[in-house]
C-alpha cells in the first residue's frame, strides 16, 4: 500500500510499520494486565511537542498492514496530563477503560468514567485531560485514512 505523494499522513500514525512491509493477516494480542498487550509497544503520542503532556499510546489495530477501515489505539494520560487541543475532518470514538478524565468538545466539557463513550464529530475542537490523581486510559477508534489535525492554542 503505497502513499500518494500529496497524501497527508496523520501525526497519530508515527511508529507503525509500513503497510507494504507486512501482509494483511489476522492477529491476536494477549492482554497482560494493566492495559498492556503482548506484542504491542508504548509509543510517543506525537512526534513533535505541541500543547500536550504526559500521554502515551499503544496501537492495537492499524499500521501493521491491516486492511481495516479503522484503527484502534489505547491512550493513557498520567495525572496532570492532556492531549493536544485540535480539530480535523475525521471522526473519533473514545471509550474510557481506566480511571477517569475530562473530554472537551467545542465549548462543552464532560467528565468520563469507566465505559463512558463519546463520539467526536468531524471539525469539532476537542481535547482529553486528566485533572485527577490516577491514570486516565481510553480506547480511541478512528478512520484508517485521516487528515492531519489542526493544533490549536
Walk me through this protein's architecture.
The chain is an all-beta fold and 153 residues long. It has one domain (11-145): Sandwich (Jelly Rolls), CATH 2.60.120. The protein has strands at 31-33, 36-37, 43-44, 53-61, 70-82, 86-87, 92-98, 101-105, 108-112, 117-120, 126-129, 136-143, 150-151. The strands form 4 sheets. Strands 3-4-5-12-7-10 form a 6-stranded antiparallel sheet, with no helix packed on it. Strands 9-8-11 form a 3-stranded antiparallel sheet, with no helix packed on it. A two-stranded antiparallel ribbon has the order 1-2. Strand 1 (31-33) and strand 2 form a beta hairpin. The protein is globular. Residues 1-21 have low confidence and may be disordered.
Give a topology summary.
Layout lengths: L30 E3 L2 E2 L5 E2 L8 E9 L8 E13 L3 E2 L4 E7 L2 E5 L2 E5 L4 E4 L5 E4 L6 E8 L6 E2 L2
Antiparallel strand pairs: 1-2, 3-4, 4-5, 5-12, 6-13, 7-10, 7-12, 8-9, 8-11
- Intertermini distance: 35 Å
Shape: globular
Helix content: under 10%
Residue-averaged pLDDT, rounded? 85
How much beta, percentage-wise?
35-45%
Would you report the number of β strands?
13
Into how many domains do the coordinates divide?
A: 1
**What is the alpha-carbon Rg in Å?**
15 Å
Biggest sheet overview:
6 strands, antiparallel
**What's the CATH architecture name?**
Sandwich
Number of H- or I-type helical stretches: 0
**SS-based structural class?**
mainly beta
The helix-strand sequence is: EEEEEEEEEEEEE
Indicate the CATH class.
Mainly Beta
CATH topology: Jelly Rolls
Order of strands, widest sheet = 3-4-5-12-7-10
Low-confidence stretches at least 5 residues in length (pLDDT < 50)? 1-21
Q: Spell out the CATH superfamily.
A: Jelly Rolls
Amino acid at each position: 500500500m503505497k502513499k500518494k505523494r500529496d497524501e497527508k499522513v496523520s501525526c497519530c500514525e508515527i511508529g507503525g510499520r509500513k503497510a507494504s512491509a507486512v501482509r494483511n493477516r489476522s492477529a491476536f494480542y494477549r492482554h497482560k494486565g494493566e492495559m498492556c498487550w503482548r506484542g504491542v509497544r508504548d509509543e510517543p503520542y506525537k512526534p513533535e511537542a505541541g500543547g500536550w503532556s504526559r500521554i502515551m499510546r499503544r496501537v492495537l489495530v492499524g499500521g501493521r498492514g491491516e486492511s481495516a477501515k479503522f484503527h484502534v489505539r489505547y491512550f493513557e494520560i498520567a495525572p496532570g496530563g492532556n492531549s493536544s487541543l485540535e480539530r480535523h475532518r475525521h471522526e473519533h470514538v473514545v471509550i474510557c477503560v481506566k480511571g477517569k478524565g475530562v473530554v472537551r468538545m467545542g465549548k462543552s466539557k464532560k467528565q468520563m468514567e469507566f465505559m463512558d463513550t463519546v463520539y467526536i464529530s468531524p471539525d469539532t475542537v476537542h481535547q482529553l485531560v486528566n485533572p485527577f490523581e490516577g491514570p486516565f486510559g481510553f480506547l480511541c477508534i478512528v478512520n484508517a485514512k485521516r487528515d492531519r489535525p489542526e493544533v490549536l492554542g
